[in-house]
Specification:
The complex is a heterodimer of chains A (about 625) and B (about 220). Chain A contains 21 helices and 19 strands. With about 625 residues, chain A is of the alpha/beta class. The termini of chain A are far apart. In chain A, the strands form six sheets. A six-stranded mixed sheet of chain A has the order 2-1-3-4-5-6, covered by helices on one side. In chain A, helix 16 links the parallel strand 17 and strand 18. Chain A folds into three domains: about 230 residues, Rossmann fold, CATH 3.40.50.280; about 160 residues, Transcription Regulator spoIIAA; about 130 residues, Transcription Regulator spoIIAA, CATH 3.30.750. In chain B, strands 1, 2, 3, 4, 5, 8, 9 and 10 form an eight-stranded mixed sheet that branches. The chains are: A alpha/beta (about 625), B alpha+beta (about 220). Chains A and B meet through helix 1 and helix 10 of A and helix 1 of B. The structure holds iron/sulfur cluster (SF4). Iron/sulfur cluster (SF4) binds next to loops of chain A.
């Protein structure tokens, strides 16, 4: 399509800047001078995808190599999708506007289960066969990485290669192998077998899955010498891990439009509901020097005036005081504001608040997760009510008047008392504000409770539990609403429908592939967007495939059941998960990695927190 | 003690940058001046940000050949002849500066803008345009602040126009009121034109080539 016509069409859709490219620091290369063209595909819209750190890392890392040109592709919003379909525009990459079907690789990132239907839609828009087995040409090879690969069995039919764990090294090794095969004229089948030998590579077509009469998985059997189990890959030393000096700076406003500096990977805490807390083990930190150097480089290359420190639990960084002092020594002068998401309530000190006061004041948010101490002990969220109240007090003294608290409903062992506990806790915070003699004058307080629905995830101690049904979710949400008495408390909650589908996919197996294909044919896409999510289409697809979604979401698993993800090794042992689940049942907490190692299995790697001096 | 120095910067906005809205331009330029390392004056107050103002917003999709923004430098000794290369060094190729000088006129003196529009020509579009643009009245639909439409007559507002043939295209030069007193977006004129001439080939290329004062002199 000629550019004039294309640009004319762009003017007919919302936010044409999503598709135009040409941003600061986007990379243009001469395609005749590169060996490998990689389309990094984010299965959501531009604003969401451009906010994602993993894409920024790999985009820069790949493009640093002269022989690779990595470009960006996002899911076209439905208005532009219909323009594309009506005008026969195939899915293209932003930088070159070339159709991605001519690329060597399409790489999808799997950040959440509800983006699966977008992957199928993007393959279709690209004019590429959706099923991996129908893609007989050598290229493009369709690969996928990201957290959901720890159980991406539901989309195994559509993907040639999954990358398990951290991709910085695995991806480039696979690209190099591909170059060799391309040069020597090898077949795709041989390439996939060879690739499966690289650490962190999982080629789903090299594993056969058999099932028991009760529909559970019987066994997963490797073929052609593929490894068993398949191990995830980690970066061993974050000070030596590639980190970009430049971010592409979007023209249009995106969700997180700021510099991001990752300060560590993994989490010491072991909250039992949290998948990220287990699959990224062990904790590995960057040094203060590395963080400061990298953060400065990104600010200089982008002109951003805000930098966010990224990790799963920022206040657990072992030398936060020193880190903040170092950063503040130049950010204040350069008028850069610091933001520290993911703070924990228990170690939120007056000094830390003092430091945060140097930076931009937005509302304070805390994850309390459950309303009663009993349930917080069950989920191993090691914080007490006193700590929560004390922290809010500290924040109020510091001039904050709005607090947002995150909770979940549907946690294992939860009763209606625990639900009421959410409202009681919020009330206590409101009361605390009014009881303070030195409360900010003439101001009123607002406590927002944001309630999501618990979804049991693989590689967590709760992977055995059933998810509560949609009806129960609604009942509990209604009950919570009734328990709230103060106008100072606002309440927001998540849709039960999307949580249900997420629950099905999270612990699903390969038989769900045909359901996803069917739903795609019925037009499902952008499922994580309420305005496009259509549960009926999904339920029809389940029914037509003869599959009961409750089997995946609402069924309790026994310890000896073979899980669809058991052949994938994230170093956290099943014995450890079982032990943790048993402790949960009796409300026993587990100390964090720094206090006492629990031998979860990640110590085999001999890195990070597992080998720290305690 | 330094005094602040206001500088007027002139730039071109073309190609992919045409899809950047006016609101987004503000954020974009904030980053550009920061990235260029300029010692620029920040507004005071709750949320300080670099002082940047644009003389005249450019509608989405238009190319701008004579775009103007004002900034304030903290150091009035700064050699402003260096600004163009400093800023272009950090700008994408579709936004490029071509001049920097101390402002001569006030933004309120802007009265007109001059546009150049290219039409795919099917041989008769030039005649159609010529007869359309001299009609009285030329009824167009204008969006009001409330979001609905009202009808207005643009025949008196067209300050000047001229059509020429250029290769396969017809080129229209058009001068319309612009600025804070009276502002006419040429799109509403084209919309009326296409309503009357549904078979006319679509224009694909609108450039705003200059910003003028009431005497049709360049705004400087
Ligand atoms: S082995 Fe011990 S220190 Fe290492 S991640 Fe597991 S529990 Fe934490």
């Amino acid at each position: 399509m000629d550019n004039k016509r294309f640009e004319q069409l762009l003017l007919t859709v919302q936010k044409p800047g999503r598709y135009s490219g040409g941003e600061i620091n986007s990379v243009i290369k001469d395609k005749s001078k590169v060996d490998v063209r990689f389309a990094f595909c984010f299965p959501d819209n531009y604003e969401v995808g451009m906010s994602h750190l993993g894409m920024k890392i790999l985009y820069s890392e790949f493009n640093e190599r002269e022989d690779i040109w990595c470009e960006r592709v996002f899911a076209p919003w439905p208005d532009f999708e219909s323009v594309m379909r009506n005008n026969n525009i195939e899915l293209f990459a932003l930088e070159s506007r070339d159709p991605v079907k001519d690329f060597d690789f399409l790489g999808f990132t799997l950040q959440y289960e509800l983006s699966y239907s977008n992957i199928l839609n993007m393959l279709e828009l690209a004019g590429i066969p959706i099923l991996a087995k129908d893609r007989t040409d050598f290229s493009p090879i369709v690969v996928a990485g990201g957290p959901c690969t720890c159980n991406a069995e539901p989309i195994a039919d559509f993907i040639d290669i999954f990358f398990l764990g951290e991709g910085e090294k695995t991806d480039l090794q696979v690209i190099d192998l591909y170059k060799e095969f391309k040069k020597n004229g090898g077949t795709k089948a041989d390439f996939l077998v060879a690739a499966s030998k690289i650490e962190g590579v999982y080629v789903p077509s090299l594993y056969d899955v058999s099932y028991n009469d009760d529909k559970t998985v019987k066994a997963v059997t490797p073929k052609f010498g593929a490894p068993m189990p398949v191990k995830k890959r980690i970066e061993e030393d974050l000070d030596k891990t590639y980190y970009p000096e430049k971010f592409v700076v979007p023209f249009i406003e995106i969700v997180h439009d700021r510099a991001v500096e990752e300060i560590f990977r993994g989490c010491i805490r072991g909250c039992r509901f949290c998948q990220a807390g287990f699959i990224y083990r062990p904790v590995r930190e960057k040094s203060v020097d590395t963080v400061c150097r990298q953060a400065k480089a990104i600010c200089d290359s982008t002109g951003y005036d805000e930098i966010s420190l990224s990790s799963l639990s920022t206040s657990d960084y072992s030398d936060l005081e020193n880190l903040l002092n170092n950063l503040l020594s130049w950010t204040e002068k350069d008028k850069i504001s610091l933001s520290l998401p993911s703070l924990r309530i228990d170690n939120f000190s007056d000094e830390l608040l003092e430091k945060i006061n140097h930076v931009r004041k937005s509302g304070l948010t805390f994850a309390a997760e459950a309303g009663t101490q009993r349930l917080r002990d069950v989920i191993n969220k090691n914080i007490t009510e006193d700590e929560i109240v004390k922290t809010c007090k500290t924040a109020f003294k510091g001039g904050y008047t709005a607090v947002k608290l995150y909770f979940m409903i549907g946690l294992p062992t939860e009763t209606y008392d625990d639900i009421k506990g959410i409202a009681d806790l919020a009330q206590k915070i409101v009361d605390t504000f009014y009881e303070m003699p030195d409360k900010p004058k003439g101001k009123s307080v607002s406590v927002n409770i944001s309630v999501s629905n618990f979804v049991p995830k693989p590689f967590t101690p709760f992977e055995f539990h059933s998810q509560i049904t949609r009806e129960e979710i609604i009942k509990k949400q209604e009950y919570l609403k009734q328990c709230i008495r103060s106008k100072k408390i606002s309440f927001s909650y998540h849709e039960n429908k999307t949580s249900f589908l997420e629950g099905v996919f999270a612990r699903g197996d390969r038989r769900l592939g045909k359901v996803i294909l069917k739903a795609h044919e019925k037009g499902c896409r952008f499922d994580s967007w309420d305005e496009y999510f259509d549960l009926q289409k999904w339920m029809d697809s389940f029914a037509e495939c003869g599959i009961d979604p409750a089997f995946y979401a609402n069924r309790e698993r026994s310890y000896d059941e073979v899980n669809p993800w058991d052949h994938l090794d994230y170093y956290v042992s099943k014995e450890f998960l079982i032990k943790e689940n048993e402790r949960a049942k009796v409300g026993k907490t587990t100390p964090n990695c720094r206090l006492q190692c629990q031998n979860c299995g990640a110590n085999i790697l001999g890195k990070g927190v597992c080998v720290e001096n305690r | 003690m330094f005094a602040l120095k206001t500088v007027r910067l002139f730039f071109v906005k073309k190609g992919n940058a045409r899809f950047v809205s006016h609101l987004d331009m503000n954020r974009f330029m904030t980053r550009i001046v920061r990235k260029a390392g300029l010692d620029i004056w920040y507004t005071e107050g709750f949320n300080p940000h670099p002082y940047i103002t644009f003389a005249l917003p450019l509608p989405l999709g238009f190319e701008g050949r004579y775009e103007i923004m004002d900034i304030r430098l903290n150091n009035d000794d700064f050699d402003i002849s260096k600004l163009v290369s400093m800023l272009n060094g950090v700008c994408p190729s579709d936004i490029q500066f071509f001049d920097a000088k101390e402002p001569i006129k006030k933004v309120g003196e802007i009265a007109f803008a001059k546009y150049e529009i290219l039409f795919d020509d099917n041989g008769e579009i030039r005649n159609k345009l010529n007869s359309f643009l001299v009609k009285k009245p030329i009824i167009c639909r204008k969006r009001t602040k409330k979001g609905d439409f009202k009808e207005i007559d643009l025949s008196e507002k067209i300050k000047d126009f001229q059509t020429t043939l250029e290769g396969d295209n017809t080129k229209l030069m058009l001068i319309l009121p612009a600025g804070s007193n009276d502002n006419v977006n040429p799109s509403i004129l084209f919309e009326a034109f296409y309503n009357e001439n549904p078979n006319a080939y679509y224009c694909y290329d609108v450039k705003r080539i200059s910003i003028l004062d009431k005497n049709l002199k360049d705004f400087l």
